[in-house]
Recover the amino acids of this structure.
């Protein structure tokens, strides 16, 4: 599956109030890195004109499970790129957590990546967010 087909899986709709800065978030699981236990993906974003359809995000994660990912960082940055392209959100954060036991001797492996529109900032909104 190429990048354009993958991105088309993410369906969007109109933001009900473009004048507000608010945070929307979704979480899901997917089987990657050759593990029996699922990895976790959590996203948060401040919408601009579009919001993400939750059902399409679930289908998107199912497709990502069928692809080969050599590293959690590659998965996280691909999700960020896809969301940034389809949503053009004011701000997007993707957190990916590997299943426990993926790496012998390590308790956890987590990657967080973010993107924002140039010039957008709302520190009072973002400072209230808890970690993913």
């Amino acid at each position: 599956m190429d990048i354009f087909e993958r991105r088309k899986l993410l369906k969007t709709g109109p933001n009900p109030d473009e004048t507000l800065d608010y945070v929307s978030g979704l979480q899901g699981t997917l089987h990657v890195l050759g593990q029996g236990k699922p990895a976790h993906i959590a996203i948060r974003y401040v919408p601009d004109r579009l919001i993400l359809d939750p059902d399409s995000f679930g289908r998107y994660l199912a497709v990502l499970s069928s692809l080969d990912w050599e590293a959690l960082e590659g998965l996280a940055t691909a999700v960020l790129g896809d969301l940034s392209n389809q949503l053009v959100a004011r701000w997007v954060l993707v957190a990916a957590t590997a299943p426990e036991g993926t790496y012998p001797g390590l308790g956890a492996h987590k990657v967080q990546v973010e993107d924002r529109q140039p010039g957008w900032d709302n520190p009072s909104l973002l400072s209230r967010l808890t970690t993913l």
